[in-house]
Specification:
elongated, 261 residues, 8 helices, 8% strand, mainly alpha
Length: 261
């Protein structure tokens, strides 16, 4: 059977069993018809949402749902009504809380000497507390005044912290101390003076091997005059050459060189 669509007004075919039920030709037209039936056009419309009054505090409120019927404005009022509290006691408690807030703001005990707010237990506000820390802050190593970013900071720089640890944990003060077992040759090669000499040699030669002329990689600083015989020339830059691992191994055939040398 043929029927006219209520939304787009097109003629479409319908089964005789669905003639009284179907009014749209497609899902799009069905959605349009449902949107047009919102509110008063809907057959189930009952006047919309209405303002309701709370049975406990007599406050006017709008319900969350359109057709909801609620007795109380909130869960607090519903719980208090179940307990058996009166409406007058509820109003008196609200007034007491408001007066307590006003008295707390004007109370001189809750204000610092500067006029800012502070906690009940604390003696001063945060600004005054940090100013006191700034006045009494001195570095443990260099003993210079500095502004603390945190209450636990004790050093003005990282260098001061490193130098303090070197002096505090050096030698017999270190927990890993074993009565000076390390050899003097190993101490010299692990010292800062030797590391500075090696880096200066690499910078002079642009990090290139002077024999095979490979750039970068596992480079070694070779002593032209031997490290053990010529003690005075150990830390001179003219006595150094940059060599790769394979080229350095050719010169020291009897030595057990490793890649971590």
């Amino acid at each position: 059977m043929e029927k006219e669509c209520t939304a787009c007004k097109k003629v479409f075919y319908v089964r005789p069993s669905h003639f009284d039920k179907r009014f749209s030709c497609s899902k799009k037209c069905q959605n349009i018809n449902q949107k047009n039936k919102i509110g008063k056009l809907n057959s189930n419309y009952k006047g919309g949402a209405k303002i309701q009054t709370c049975n406990f505090c007599n406050k006017k409120f709008m319900p969350n749902f359109i057709y909801a019927k609620r007795k109380y404005c909130s869960t607090i009022c519903s719980s208090k009504s179940k307990i058996g509290l009166s409406r007058e006691l509820h109003i008196n408690t609200l007034k007491y809380i408001e007066l307590k807030k006003l008295n707390g703001l004007n109370n001189p005990k809750k204000k610092c000497e500067c006029g800012n707010k502070k906690d009940v237990k604390s003696k001063t506000c945060q600004n005054c507390f940090f100013e006191k820390i700034k006045r009494n802050s001195n570095c443990l190593f260099c003993k210079d005044k500095f502004i603390k970013k945190h209450s636990t900071t004790k050093f003005c720089k990282k260098e001061c912290h490193i130098n303090y640890l070197k002096n505090f944990y050096s030698g017999s003060k270190n927990p890993n101390w074993k009565n000076g077992i390390t050899k003097p040759n190993k101490k010299i090669r692990a010292s800062e003076k030797y590391i500075e000499w090696r880096n200066k040699v690499f910078i002079r030669d642009n990090y290139t091997c002077q024999d095979c002329k490979t750039i970068g990689g596992n480079l070694h600083a070779h002593h032209i005059k031997s490290f053990s015989k010529f003690i005075d020339l150990r830390f001179e830059i003219t006595n150094g050459l940059t060599l790769c691992f394979n080229c350095h191994k050719k010169l020291h055939k009897n030595m057990n060189l490793k890649k971590g040398f």
